[in-house]
Amino acid sequence: MARDYYATLGVDQKATDQELKRAYRKLARELHPDVNPDEAAQARFRDISTAYEVLSDPEKRRIVDLGGDPLSSGGGGGAGFGGGFGGGLGDVFEAFFGGGGGAGRGPRGRVQPGADSLLRTKLTLAECATGVSKHVTVETAILCDSCTGSGTNGDSTPVRCETCGGAGEVQSVQRSFLGQVMTSRPCPTCRGAGETIPDPCHKCGGDGRVRARRDITVKVPAGVAGGMRIRLAAQGEVGPGGGPAGDLYVEVVEQAHEVFVRDGEDLHCTIRVPMIDAALGTTVTIDTIIDGPKEITIEPGTQPGSVTVLRGHGMPKLRSGIRGDVHAHLEVVVPSRLDHKETKILRELKDLRDRDVAEVVSTQSQHSGGLFSRLREAFSGR
After folding, report:
1. 3-class DSSP assignment, residue 119
2. What is residue 250's predicted lDDT score, i.e. its pLDDT?
3. What fold is seen in the domain 257-336?
4. 273: which strand partners?
5. Is the pLDDT assigned to residue 41 strictly greater than 50?
6. 149 pLDDT exceeds 80?
7. Dihedral, 260, 261, 266, 271 alpha carbons, nearest 10
8. In terms of CATH, what superfamily is 104-158+197-255?
9. Phi/psi class of residue 242: alpha, beta or left (left: φ > 0; alpha: ψ in -120 to 50)?
10. What pLDDT does 88 receive?
């Protein structure tokens, strides 16, 4: 069965070239891997790209309209070799090899769109939290200021390529088990442009662009995280022949913080609490990233591994007023060395709390969070 390329792009069979282009661009903006990293979206993006490639080619589109599939192994899909194509077997080779009795694709022109560029910039956790205007240096192709993109020197102009006669492609005949097959390929002299520059610009060599370094200010919004990319439209590579520039993507590299570990919008830190303070209770001041110093209350009788949460003092959610939390993980520190006086006091405390004795905890105990509790749950499949 031939694939329904029209349905893939969401257009009908009578769609014009402009309608095809608009439909493809609309879907590409939603499904491009730089915008939507989902695997299903990437597969869909490949499908719409294939559909647009087929339908934007007049010969391939003609095969589709006749009920065939120009990308299938059989070439003609349901139409077959005999009567599905108006010119018979020759049309099949023309669709696949770009030659045959019909016209080729023609010259692609010297002016081409530029490629996208990517650079990385390091940001501290504070810069990610509050947002920042970052000055970066990027090296890309820019418009040649000597020829303003024309690629020619002075008043000279491009001329038609003598090798391909301006067609942008050359044809050759190859022998196969089916006979002679005519194939087309881009002209090696003009590289498919259909024209050459006899007197090229001395600065860019006829390319219409030169490489240069330039400084750009990137506005980083609050809440960005490592791996995110900021798109700067038309700040990428200028295309050959002075074509429109591509986009520049600035990828965020988030540096590690000395206190906090980030998990989405939440921040995690560890507070070491002396055994006495854990038993009696105390307060600890931590310097939050955005809101400055904040006090955390350690309740009397705090146990090792306890977590105290400061609501709404974490990282901001990108393009939202929502804030994450700060999670303080409490680590109770038991002294390893005691002097005579400290030992005496603790022994007196032990005598007062003679009900506190060391014991082996049963595996059926309902105390949660212990090592054996976690192991039991893992092996029992809970």
Report:
1. strand
2. 95
3. HSP40/DNAj peptide-binding domain (2.60.260)
4. 332
5. yes
6. yes
7. -50
8. Urease metallochaperone UreE, N-terminal domain (2.60.260.20)
9. left
10. 36
